[in-house]
TrEMBL record:
TM annotation in the entry: 23-48, 60-82, 94-113, 160-182, 194-213
Main location: membrane
InterPro entries assigned to the protein according to its UniProt record, in alphabetical order: MFS_dom, MFS_sugar_transport-like, MFS_trans_sf, Sugar_transporter_CS
Protein name per the record: Major facilitator superfamily (MFS) profile domain-containing protein
Gene Ontology CC: one annotated term: plasma membrane
Pfam family, one: Sugar_tr
All residue ranges annotated as the Major facilitator superfamily (MFS) profile domain in the record: 23-248
Key words of the record: Cell membrane, Membrane, Transmembrane, Transmembrane helix, Transport
Keyword Transmembrane helix among UniProt keywords: yes
PANTHER family: MAJOR FACILITATOR SUPERFAMILY TRANSPORTER, SHIKIMATE TRANSPORTER
Alphabetized GO MF terms: transmembrane transporter activity
């Protein structure tokens, strides 16, 4: 009887570890893809400046392209506020889906966007809007992924588990650079004409993979418990700065 109980306990422990690895992998992979989408613009800023800011000299065009790149970073905190609140209302899983879809579609749209030569001033305006949508999505994704993993982590391992989320920015940057190099090799002399669009268009494939993976994820048990007990915060921002347990 004792051996049977030990075997059952070992099986349950093994199943729990597999689920934890799945959660880390799924959360990290989706966040890597989002960082890939986010960093693509920076890797292609020189080409983008010629395609979307062609109405001025090259130096000014490049500065404008970098300013559009910065717009994504500026709105990230607002994305964290908006999607953090949404995560407290509808759950972490569904917020995850919203952020990944918003990022993927925004990036894909950049790959389809007509240039300045085709639609004039509307091209850079739409580009900046799409860039801001990317920033909003990443702002919600990054904090949401860390929260989701932390709420699944066993006692004493939250720092270790969420550390995987911290590494996703580097991996996303590396992936974006590799894809840009591959696209440059494939398109050759046509890279600045149409080849630069390939990395952005690839994001629709990454979006499909991420969505499929995240649809199989379960809601955070901590959120389910808080919601069942009616303990979901009504004013999370205010409580973050006025509640003593949160300040410690």
């Amino acid at each position: 009887m004792s051996d049977y109980i030990q075997e059952q306990g070992a099986a349950a422990s093994s199943s729990s570890r597999r689920e934890e690895r799945k959660i880390i992998f799924a959360s990290s992979l989706g966040t890597v893809f989002e960082w890939y989408d986010f960093f693509l613009y920076g890797a292609l800023a020189a080409v983008i400046s010629k395609q979307f800011f062609a109405g001025v000299n090259d130096t000014t065009a490049f500065i404008f392209a970098l300013m559009a790149f910065a717009a994504g970073f500026l709105v990230r905190p607002f994305g964290a506020l908006v999607f953090g609140r949404l995560g407290d209302m509808i759950g972490r899983k569904y917020t995850f889906l919203v952020t990944i879809v918003l990022m993927g579609l925004s990036t894909f749209a950049v790959g389809l966007l007509p240039t300045y030569a085709s639609i004039g001033i509307a091209a850079p305006i739409i580009l900046v809007i799409l860039r801001m949508l990317q920033g909003l999505a990443l702002g919600g994704e990054y904090g949401g992924a860390a929260t989701y993993v932390a709420e699944h982590a066993p006692h004493g391992k939250r720092g270790f588990y969420t550390g995987f989320i911290q590494s996703t920015a580097t991996l996303g940057l590396l992936l974006s650079l590799l894809v840009v190099l591959g696209s440059r090799y494939i398109s050759g002399d046509q890279f600045e004409t149409w080849g630069w669009r390939l990395p952005f268009l690839l994001s629709i494939v990454l979006l499909a993979i991420s969505t499929w993976i995240r649809m199989s994820m379960h809601e955070s048990p901590a959120f389910v418990k808080m919601k069942a007990q009616g303990k979901v915060s009504k004013s999370p921002i205010r409580e973050s700065f006025t509640s003593w347990p949160n300040l410690k």
